Input
Amino acid sequence: MCGIVGYIGSKQAYPIIINGLKRLEYRGYDSAGIALYDGTDIQLAKTKGKVADLEERVAQEISKKGTLGIGHTRWATHGVPNDVNSHPHFSNSGDLVLIHNGIIENYASLKIELINRGYTFKSDTDTEVLVNLIEEIKKQENVKLGKAVQIALNQVVGAYAIALFDRKKPDEIVVAKLGSPLAIGIGNNEFFVASDASPFIEYTNNAIYLEDEEMAILRLGREIRVRKIKDDTLVNPNIQKLKLSLEQIEKGGYDHFMLKEIFEQPSVIKDTYRGRLLANQGIIKLGGLEDYIPRFTNANRIVIIACGTSWHAGLVAEYIFEEWTRIPVEVEYASEFRYRNPIITEKDVVIAISQSGETADTLAAIKLAKEKGAFVYGICNVVGSTISRETHSGTYTHAGPEIGVASTKAFTTQITVLTMMALKIGKVKGTISQTDYMMHLRELEMIPTHVAEALKSNDKIEEIAAVFKNATNFLYLGRGVNFPVALEGALKLKEISYIHAEGYPAAEMKHGPIALIDEQMPVVVIAVNSNHYGKVVSNIEEIKARSGKIIAVVTEGDTEVRALADYVMEVPKTPETLTPLVTTIPLQLLSYHIAVMLDKNVDQPRNLAKSVTVE
Ligand code: M6R
Output
């Protein structure tokens, strides 16, 4: 986690770094700091709190001048969030200054060695150990900064994306990466460094994404040099043309990124299937899938690995893949899968789902599945992300940058990709009828219109949110393909409003959670047209008999549930398998409005970060 930004060139570094840190706050926001070289010395300011707090600190403490600098926004791993533990960190001599995203696992033993050599430490961080280790090696081996970094990183166990510079040689920044992302923007005799490309998108669209175990020296007046950390060999860097625009990473008139992203869903779902779903011709064409269809049709089973919201999308996929492809599917938390010696063979296909493409647990699970011989297919949103590069093939969701920490459009676009995959594989395998196939193609094409329709209930949902905003617990119930939507609805509420919420398969309620129900308990029930409709109605009756408050998601025109429920949120009619794409919408809006009414930080909920690059 954590966001890092750096700049070296002829522009003033401060505004580039501060704006860049604001764009990276989704990665962590418990403290922030900046180091600027003002022409003679390094100016350092850092503080507990957000980037806005850092701006105030800078205004009081340091000059903003300088054309070289590095900045950091933190999600604490080692050491509580406070001023001292914030990055950047100086080496003992005050010459080197470093920012770090990741964890140095063997920092404790390295620290003891350094203390024995006379080093002292101000913070509790692993990062301060690393910068001093580099300094010690530079001194002992009498080598340049780049070489010292390379030697030091070979002694380090863990994950890192780092950027550092030496006040005695202020014409270069050294960067390196293992496990955490690092993008380098290349301008006209200037370089940008960041955890993703958003901090430098208005300055250049030429970027290099460092691979794991690579480092680079960004020196003014010289071409970029990328080397392997292990053996110092030179690498030919792949300079990519970025397609990201500034508009995509701004709020566009909405109060919060989360709301913007919820409302973007009709257009981004269309972007997800654009050029891939040709309903009239009965064609689904997914570039990454075409050559690998036999891997799926001959697979013993599909194992889906993911975390959080992406895991919920995987659960939705379990229903639709089994329905249309008749291939057994298992859905695993990546964090559990990676540590339990799973039985995976060459006949298994693993699908890894990740919005960010950087989630550490998912990445480790992918590596394990590959070692065991499985074919691994990735579904990612962030183009060029580590997971998209680590998988054998895959499909991008094309949802555009998702900045709100609570995932919304990533979920619906992941389901859109998974639906297209299941339809395509089922068609080739002959396990879905032609009529069903064609009907679902046409209906999938209608989903953006249905989502836009569902969004029209926003005001009504805001009123419902006002009624329940002070509840301390919520239960979310759904059946079949809408059970994962219930889990997702509960997760959204928990993470942004800090209200306890649980998702359950509606029929499981009577095996325990029903004991929780009384007149204080709001129960959100997904009760749309489906094979389970009658059963869900019975579940609603059971809640009502115990005085629970029912907020139901129903299909337009529903009368039966409407008569039972305290409040209803309508969604357009769509085939059962596609309902998660519409039933999710009111649940996203409900959690959003409750969080706003409770005055919570919707886009940056406490303790969370957008991209979980630590275990
Ligand atoms: O980037 P990923 O999809 O791999 O992230 C997985 C989870 O960390 C993520 O979905 C998290 O649960 C979100 N905060 C949910 O809103």
